[in-house]
Amino acid sequence: MAELAGSFEQYGAWRDALAQAIVQFRRWLQDNKLLDAEASRRIGLALDRLAEDKLVVAVVAEFSRGKSELINAIFFADCGRRILPTSAGRTTMCPTELMYDESLPPCIRALPIETRAQSGSTSEFRKSDAEWRTFLVDAASADGMLEAFKLVSETIRVRAEEAKMYGLFDPDDPDHQAGIDSDGTVEISRWRHAVINFPHPLLKQGLVVLDTPGLNAIGAEPELTLSLVPSAHAVLFVLAADTGLTKSDLDMWRHVVRDSGATEHHIAVLNKIDGLWDGLKTAAEIDIEVQRQVALVSQRLELDRSRIFAVSAQKGLVAKLQHDEKLLAASRLPELESALVNVLVPAKQNIIRSQSLSLIERVGEEVRQTLAVRERGLGEQLYEMRSLQGKNQGSIERMLLRAQREAAEFEKVARKVVATRFILNKIASQALAPLKRDALREAATKARERMHKAWLPTAFAPILGEYFDGLRDAIWQTNERIAEMEKLMVGVQGNFAQELGWSLAAPMTFSIDSYRAEVDRLQEAAKVQFGTFIVLTRGKWGLIERFLETVVAKSRDIFVAAERDVEAWIGSLLPPLEAQVREQRVALIRRAESVQKIRDAQESLDGRIGELQDALQTVQEKIESLKQQLGRARATARGAELQLAGAVAAAAPAVEQPMISAEELGLVRQRVSA
Ligand SMILES: Nc1nc2c(ncn2[C@@H]2O[C@H](COP(=O)(O)OP(=O)(O)OP(=O)(O)O)[C@@H](O)[C@H]2O)c(=O)[nH]1
Ligand SMILES: [Mg+2]
Questions:
Q1: Which atom of ligand 1 is nearest to 61's Cα?
Q2: What is the pLDDT of residues 502-536, one digit of tens each?
Q3: Are 622 and 412 in contact (CB under 8 A)?
Q4: Whose CA is nearest to atom 22 of ligand 1?
């Protein structure tokens, strides 16, 4: 925890410093009147992203493997007690997120299970407060908190038909049948989802921990497998040494974790190794036994041994609460924590770093060009004014005519920007149309109706396949229009280069291919889920319906994000050109004006030359100052990497590592950072 907290704190401090540097850069732009609306919007977005940055750890396992205990031990031992309820048998009944949102008081927000009878996935319910129940928590009272957190294990008894309506009871399943009481009721979770808002230091830094219930609940809540687990930055899959690797563990690993995407985020935990400490075996014997189990798990999960950690969550928690270093080392929890930090922090930091750097470079380059145009304009004016020294009225007159003619010629070229905006808007609306809500809704309705009409569940998979093909086609269409817009911009910029000698940065190459990859991933996850469903439900429509809803909700999320990116890209195309046109126009008008004033003897030539020299110096100072601003922001963005890597490397050797060698750990790190 010390290492985890240290890394998180460093990461959080780096992120804050980065945000600070971007704010400073924005202020500098503002003070120097160099911030246009588009750059301001982009900077605002980047700052929002930094403020909302989260690191999500999902803990997944069959019931009673010790997920909740592991969360208590790794993240919350400093609360001085066990905060999430743990017990033999099923305990956590609903997916539970622990996080901190400072705009809310400490509380638990819970979505009643009855919402499963309505349409809408958890993420859709999340968008409104209406269905959620909120319970305030007194964060200062450990007892109060503990009491409040028991909510996640609350159950209710309902009639079997009602449970069936929620998709939690299958009359054809003998296990489910056995669960019916003499009064015809079954026990189900009271809540569908819980979000604990809790001002713990790690959560304040942006950590989100997702605790999940065992298989049955996961199978019934597609949101977890399609959305929450795949989008986590680290997934801990927990097994227990006393039960070994059971068939249902393996099913869960395959369907929920392995097939959910990025394997480099996965860590397997073999928990409850304290069961092997029977007092009769020597430490060496215990170690051999643990190694044997780890080897077996590695083989069955097809996961590298360096990714498997044997621990005792319970002893780790006790050791931390009692400050017992020896017991903590025996629990082997610190090794797992090191690995978790390495999976979680560097990869996330790289993403944030490159996003922020690309924003800084892009905005910086645009401003640099604006200043360069200004510098050139002033330089030219100065040259002209100097050449007027000692000239007669006739030459001044000629120069005025030339200045006026050039200003008029420029306006002709500049008009092309207006025409370009018109064409661009037209293509833009064609580019965005396939991603719009209506188009998606239509595709979803069609798929749903076809499934409804289909007689055999075997017809479902191809229908779903066609739905996904439709999504990919929409992305393809958008990409085509994007390419068209890029070509248009390159052409217009070429025009300006030819006629005015401008060199503008080429439009950022862009496509929404990454969203196609997300659609592919969603389809993969959906396929796996779907296979399980057909078997589980034997064609139960309610469950299929809910599953379909989650797929549609998730596809909508993908499209909303894609649409936002496309809009932002389109928005970034013209402003740099427009800014230069503005700059140039002002320079040309100023030039004609000053020649005129000199002709009319309203201004002395020397005075004007002096003014221009001052203005030129000011611009050159701004260019220099921009360089410094950019250098500072870049350094902040790059800065913490070495420190962070250094901190992890320094902390690692201090921990005893009987299970995995330093080389192996290095390999994991390399892979993670790769
Ligand atoms: N001996 C031993 N028992 C443990 C360990 N970790 C957890 N347990 C016990 O295992 C039982 C289940 O632990 P939980 O943390 O509730 O398990 P879970 O995976 O959250 O289970 P669900 O919430 O039902 O899905 C509890 O009685 C814990 O005390 C451990 O490292 N060693
Ligand atoms: Mg639990």
A1: 19
A2: 877 788 889 898 899 889 988 887 887 766 555 54
A3: no
A4: 63
